[in-house]
Specification:
This protein is of the alpha/beta class and 336 residues long. 39% of the residues lie in helices and 15% in strands. The longest helix is centred in the middle third of the chain and has 18 residues, at 148-165. The site of ligand PBG has 11 residues, from α6.
């Protein structure tokens, strides 16, 4: 039966979108609970959880509440959490010595979580910014420049301490040169051969970290939201340099490579995907989360649909796993 209104078309891609069933069969990318890593903030003391103003639904938890939250995430099927400290300002120093305190907040938090939920993968950040009064990720020299080699030595020690506390994965987020090799060597020297390194390989000097710095208090410490980390974090204009950073971390012994932020850098995720056989993580950072929440509050975007789409797009770009503050909500949505 010919219909006079039909145009002469030999390809109709809409056929593969005709019904829910055909759309399901032709789906190329999926977002599952196994893809999610939930960042969590921990604070000392017994106070109730405090919400981060610029990150609705994200709280700083004391250790018992953190353990409880970790348990809820594990019950939803989430496999991994990444914990970050809100350090008491009185413990911050120019050199960030608190980072090497075996009785510090993060080692205690890791021990508590692993005691209750040994199967939940715990990732700890390796960088000095939560512990330095100036908020930089390393130690400054007289010129105010972050001293690479001195900082790398400290990071090696910090990684060992975190692994000994029970962290399954250490995640250097500092962007110093050579820190992955130094950390691997330090871990191996201590027999910590099964502690993995998730390297923040391609981390841009991004304005999207603003709300995170509120959460850990590193912005207040420095007196500005726009703390300038351009001498170590990457220039957002650079793609080839991203590949160099990824290649070096792979050679130095990283187990997983990370790109951060995620949404504004989908092309970088894809480029790294094409270069490496290693798993790739992407960090949907605080500012990406805050943007979606802000628009949803204004009634301009649907929160859950936008969050899901943003994460699916990060997977489609080539990420195997995503650190996202939406983890719990998305896991609940996926479970129905
Ligand atoms: C610092 C660190 C940052 C984030 C994770 N680790 C911020 C920064 O580099 O200043 C940002 C995460 C986020 O914005 O969600 N070591």
């Amino acid at each position: 039966m010919s219909d006079a209104s039909q145009i002469d078309l030999h390809r109709r891609p809409r056929r593969n979108r005709f019904s829910p069933a055909i759309r399901a069969l032709t789906t190329e990318t999926s977002l599952g609970i196994n893809d999610l890593i939930c960042p969590l903030f921990v604070k000392d003391g017994n106070d109730a959880p405090s919400e981060v103003v610029s990150m609705p639904g994200v709280f700083r938890y004391n250790i018992p509440d953190l353990v409880n939250e970790a348990g809820q995430l594990a019950a939803l099927g989430i496999k991994a959490i990444a914990i970050f400290p809100y350090t008491n300002p009185s413990l911050k120093t120019p050199r960030g010595e608190e980072a090497l305190n075996p009785g510090g907040l993060i080692p205690r938090a890791v021990q508590a979580i692993k005691k209750h939920f040994p199967g939940l993968l715990v990732i700890t950040d390796v960088a000095l910014d939560p512990y330095t009064g100036h908020g930089h990720d390393g130690v400054l020299n007289e010129q105010g420049y972050v001293d690479n080699d001195l900082t790398v030595k400290i990071l090696g020690e910090m990684a060992v301490l975190l692994a000994q506390a029970g962290a399954d994965v250490v995640a250097p987020s500092d962007m110093m040169d050579g820190r992955v090799r130094a950390i691997r060597k330090s871990l191996d020297r201590e027999g910590l051969v099964n502690t993995a390194i998730l390297a923040y390989s391609v981390k841009f000097a991004s304005a999207f970290y603003g709300p995170f710095r509120d959460a850990v208090g590193s912005a207040q410490a420095a007196g500005t939201h726009l703390l300038d980390k351009k001498t170590y974090q990457m220039n957002p204009a650079n793609r080839r340099e991203a590949l160099l950073e990824a290649q070096l971390d792979e050679e130095e012994g990283a187990d997983i490579l990370m790109v951060k932020p995620a949404g504004p850098y989908l092309d970088i995720i894809r480029e790294v995907r094409n270069q490496t056989t290693l798993p790739i993580a992407a960090y949907q950072v605080s500012g990406e989360y805050a943007q979606i929440h802000a628009a949803a509050r204004l009634g301009w975007l649907d929160l859950e649909l936008t969050a899901f789409e943003s994460l699916l797009s990060i997977k489609r770009a080539g990420a195997d796993m995503v650190l996202t503050y939406f983890s719990k909500q998305i896991a609940q949505k996926i479970r129905g």
